[in-house]
Write a structure and sequence with these properties.
Blueprint lengths: L10 H52 L5 E6 L4 E6 L3 E4 L13 E7 L15 E9 L5 H11 L7 E9 L2 E10 L14 E10 L2 E10 L6 H10 L3
Antiparallel strand pairs: 1-2, 3-4, 4-5, 5-9, 6-7, 7-8, 8-9
Length: about 230
């Protein structure tokens, strides 16, 4: 008896099936790679954005100038930046509180190591100090007029004043050109130079930032001005 034999498949149908399978595999591979690429791209973008935000925050909050550091005074609520290589000395713990007739020296920064026997900078040196005055409620100009009236400047060669703004607040800038008159605090004499002071009101106090330089070091006053510009109170 003749036996039934399997019929051969339609070759066209097999070709169509193979093509469909290949297309499906290619599509899966393509869209899978596309999804992973976008996911990584979004992750990288988010990571970079976070890094930039952190770096910007660090720059804004922890830097004023390269190689400068911040000094923060808690007792009188002021702060300023200064070159980190300078010497910082604070006096709040050892200085009597200010009164209406006397000030209290709070802090000083210098570009030299201060000698306890020398009150004023010598050649090529600069000293920037903050002194605190007690204010009895007067506005800044009235306080300054009264203060300058009680503290004579007749020993100085020249005194100039101007209204300035520091960190959006009003201040008075005083510049005194000194002569070689005796300094009653120590046995040395003043060298010719400049005293540059910024007076500011901080609550019930007057904050006075004074830079002292000798005549041959007046270029250092630009650094003093930068310190003054950085002060917050």
């Amino acid at each position: 008896m003749p036996q039934n034999t399997p019929k051969k498949g339609n070759p066209v149908l097999w070709i169509v099936l193979i093509v469909v399978v290949l297309i499906a595999v290619a599509a899966i591979l393509y869209f899978g790679d596309f999804f992973n690429t976008n996911t990584n791209s979004n992750a990288n973008t988010t990571g970079n954005a976070n890094t930039n935000t952190i770096n910007s925050a660090n720059v804004n909050s922890n830097a004023y100038k390269d190689n400068w550091q911040k000094y923060n005074n808690v007792k009188y609520s002021y702060s300023y930046w200064h070159p980190e290589s300078w010497t910082l000395k604070t006096y709040d713990d050892n200085t009597p509180n200010p009164t209406l007739t006397s000030s209290a020296q709070s802090s000083c920064v210098t570009n030299f190591e201060p000698d306890i026997s020398t009150y004023h900078p010598q050649k090529g040196e600069i000293q920037v100090c903050v002194n605190i005055f007690l204010n009895n409620g007067q506005v800044l100009k009235d306080w300054y007029t009264n203060y300058r009236g009680l503290n004579t400047t007749e020993l100085y060669n020249k005194v100039t004043t101007s209204d300035v703004t520091l960190n959006g607040q009003t201040a008075i800038k005083e510049e005194i050109i000194t002569g070689s008159q005796p300094n009653t605090n120590v046995d040395t004499e003043w060298l010719d130079g400049t005293l540059q002071t910024f007076y500011m009101i901080s609550g019930g106090y007057i904050v006075a930032l004074t830079a002292t330089v000798t005549a041959d070091s007046t270029q250092l006053l630009s650094t003093a001005s930068d310190i003054a510009d950085s002060i917050n109170w």
